[in-house]
Automatic annotation (TrEMBL):
GO molecular function: dihydrolipoyllysine-residue acetyltransferase activity; lipoic acid binding
Residue ranges, annotated region (Disordered): 331-366
Lineage: Bacteria, Pseudomonadati, Pseudomonadota, Gammaproteobacteria, Nevskiales
EC number of this enzyme: 2.3.1.12
Functional description taken from the UniProt entry: The pyruvate dehydrogenase complex catalyzes the overall conversion of pyruvate to acetyl-CoA and CO(2). It contains multiple copies of three enzymatic components: pyruvate dehydrogenase (E1), dihydrolipoamide acetyltransferase (E2) and lipoamide dehydrogenase (E3).
Species whose genome carries this gene: Solimonas marina
Catalytic activity: N(6)-[(R)-dihydrolipoyl]-L-lysyl-[protein] + acetyl-CoA = N(6)-[(R)-S(8)-acetyldihydrolipoyl]-L-lysyl-[protein] + CoA
Name of this protein: Acetyltransferase component of pyruvate dehydrogenase complex
Example of a GO cellular component annotation carried by this entry: cytoplasm
GO BP annotations listed: pyruvate decarboxylation to acetyl-CoA
First-level EC class: transferase
Length: 665
């Protein structure tokens, strides 16, 4: 067993560089190349790796200390003494490597494996940024999570960052809450039961901080790469390109918030990019008019991809949405180039995140994280229609779920919410002063009419209606009805016969006795037969429901429909007497008219319209004979019922009404 003295490596001509993070403490076990601490100058950050594996002893550095090359850090107590020499040689070789040779990006700090297979989870590498607020906490103590499941969400003023689980396990000792500010290395929790996990905590994007010695060697280059400059036409136009988004390429455009010819203000959001773990808004570098827009939703972009030209952005000299390159370092103080900001960058130190700015068309950019955006896209939900319940109006996954449930329950108002509308979701009619043409009177719409109108409007907008018509020969039925009325003890109308026929037909064709499931992928078949009938009242249309119509005779149906109709006219129907219908009948036979198109009474899938019977000449094979024909109009939901099925249903109804003996079968 031997101790290896660890000191600050060659960091060029820099001295008194502050320590901004210490990622180990006395007694910690570390692997070779694990990050011990992070330094930060005014232009760059620098991770100091362990030259070998071992146990940290005699740690002499704390956050805030200022160090230079050779400053002691700690000792590594190692059982593998031979590891020191190769590690030191490798460090020296890296320091001597030419600047042109790129070094591999180091991994984020590895989670510390605790006894019993537990993993300490810390905030991964988030670049130069500190004090980034936690805006969502998606787990709590005791939760079981899978590897890569999101634990929490951080947010800067322009992007969001999800912190994934480095392994599967049970969350223990959760140390954070919403509103806490974190930096790289901040403890999150322990994942218990993650035995055998040696992978480092996943970083959302590759770390841009190179190894200490390699950065020092690379810093010897005297001239940095020049900053890209926008192509300006006469000092007035600015070419906008995708800014520096780290090592990411082919990042999809998920929202385009401007169009050709739009006027935008400086810093207004032009478009939104999204990786699998974060979102990034691309702001306008200056005010101007959008010309030559080259992107559309779904395009994949990288740093430097052309977006558009901002015309009239006079005096704009900054690069198009890209940060300016650092000035060339002087010979007296050669500094390493700062790491390029990754896609999660844009944190103002200590400043709370703010919601996105309105787009050029006045819409508020949806304020949501990557997981929420992905969830909404999978369901086909427009985030512009959702009001967020999270902090500062942030749209959460729960908001999307609630929106979808509302749409399924009341589709029409939700669909119409995106556009101005009049009462009951009807598009507004231009205001007209009718009094200029003569005398008028304004009368309030009856409450029943308001409710039924809204319901019918939703049904008409959201159900693909088809109406099929036929005539039923009720000559014998009508003769029987008149003859049997005296013996029945109750007035027999055509309605109870039709209800009975419908009940028999629903048994024969059960898809008419169903409802479409909310998921749109199943139908719910009902084993009961409750038939509603439209009752005309002074206050409007209501639909009482006759329960178990298939189990009742004609006289019983006649008595029940008469009682329900009287209650409807007197305004005494109970709510339960208008619920649970499987199929509806709208009869206009007592008024007149021919065929019409009844509207399906959702969530039912069919409705039968009955018009006034008329004597018509019918060919019996030898001659025309007078027959009493009853017009039938069958409307149905074409998502559930197809034309052939509906045709068979209405033909059966005609047969049942033309021959009463069939009702007894």
């Amino acid at each position: 067993m031997s101790n290896i003295k660890v000191t600050v490596p060659d960091i060029g001509n820099y001295t008194d560089v502050p320590v901004i993070e210490v990622l180990v403490s006395n007694g910690d076990q570390v692997e070779a190349e694990a990050v011990l601490l992070v330094l930060e100058s005014d232009k760059s950050t620098l991770e100091v790796p362990a030259p070998a594996g071992g146990t940290v002893r005699n740690l002499t550095i704390k956050v805030g200390d200022k160090v230079s090359q050779g400053t002691p850090i700690c000792e590594l107590e190692s059982t593998a003494a031979e590891a020191a020499a190769p590690a030191a040689a490798a460090s020296a070789a890296e320091a001597a490597a030419p600047a042109a040779k790129p070094e591999p990006t180091p991994a984020a700090p590895a989670p510390v494996a605790a006894a019993g297979g537990d993993v300490e989870v810390t905030i991964p590498d988030i670049g130069d940024y500190t004090d980034v607020p936690v805006i969502e906490l998606l787990v709590s103590d005791g939760d079981t999570v899978e590897k890569d499941a999101t634990l929490l969400v951080l947010e800067s003023d322009k992007s969001t960052l999800e912190v994934p689980a480095p392994a599967a396990g049970t969350v223990k000792g959760l140390k954070l809450k919403v509103g806490d500010k974190v930096s790289q290395g901040t403890p999150v929790c322990v994942l218990s039961g993650a035995a055998g996990t040696a992978a480092p905590a996943a970083s959302p994007v590759p770390s841009e901080a190179p190894k200490a010695a390699a950065v020092a060697a690379a810093a010897s280059a005297s001239t940095p790469a020049p900053a890209p400059a926008p192509a300006a036409a006469g000092g007035a136009d600015v070419e906008v390109t995708i800014p520096d988004i780290g090592n990411y390429t082919d990042v999809p455009v998920i929202e385009l918030l401007v169009g050709e010819g739009d006027m935008v203000e400086k810093d207004a959001t032009l478009l939104v990019l999204e990786s699998d773990k974060s979102t990034l808004e691309v702001p306008a570098p200056a005010s101007g008019t959008v010309k030559g827009l080259k992107l559309k939703v779904g395009d994949k972009v990288s740093q430097g991809t052309a977006v558009c030209t901002l015309v009239g952005a006079g005096g704009a000299s900054a690069p198009a949405a890209a940060p300016a390159a650092s000035a060339a370092p002087s010979s007296a103080a050669v500094a390493p180039q700062p790491p390029a900001p990754n896609i999660t960058a844009a944190v103002t130190d200590g400043a709370p995140p703010k919601p996105p700015q309105p787009a050029a068309d006045g819409k508020q950019v949806p304020y949501a994280g990557p997981a929420t955006r992905k969830f909404a896209r999978e369901l086909g939900v427009d985030l512009f229609q959702i009001k967020g319940s999270g902090a500062r109006g942030r749209v959460l996954i729960e908001d999307v779920q609630a929106f979808v449930k509302q749409r399924l329950a009341q589709p029409a108002p939700a669909a119409a919410a995106a556009a101005p509308s009049g009462g009951m979701g009807i598009p507004p009619i231009p205001a007209v002063d009718f009094s200029q043409f003569g005398e008028i009177e304004t009368k309030a719409l009856a409450r029943i009419r308001k409710l039924s109108a809204a319901h019918l409007h939703r049904a008409w907008l959201n159900i693909p209606h088809v109406t099929q018509t036929d005539d039923a020969d009720i000559t014998e039925l009508e003769a029987f009805r008149k003859a049997a009325t005296e013996d029945a003890g109750v007035k027999l109308t055509l309605l109870p016969f039709i209800i009975k026929a419908v009940a028999v037909a629903l048994k024969a064709y059960p898809e008419f006795n169903s409802s479409l499931a909310p998921d749109g992928e199943n139908i719910i078949l009902k084993k009961y037969v409750h038939v509603g009938f439209a009752a005309d009242t002074p206050n409007g249309l209501v639909v009482p429901v006759v329960r178990n119509a298939d189990q009742k005779g004609i006289v019983e149906l006649a008595r029940e429909t008469a009682e329900l109709a009287k209650k409807a006219r007197d305004g005494k129907l109970k709510p339960d007497e208008m619920k649970g219908g499987c199929f509806s009948i709208s009869s206009l036979g007592g008024i007149g008219g021919s065929h019409f198109t009844p509207i399906v009474n959702a969530p039912e899938v069919g409705i039968l319209g009955v018009s006034k019977s008329q004597m018509k000449p019918v060919w019996d094979g030898k001659q025309f004979v007078p027959r009493l024909m009853c017009p039938l109009s069958l409307s149905y939901d074409h998502r559930v019922i197809d034309g052939a099925y509906a045709a068979r249903f209405i033909v059966l109804l005609g047969k049942l009404l033309s021959d009463l003996r069939r009702l007894t079968l």
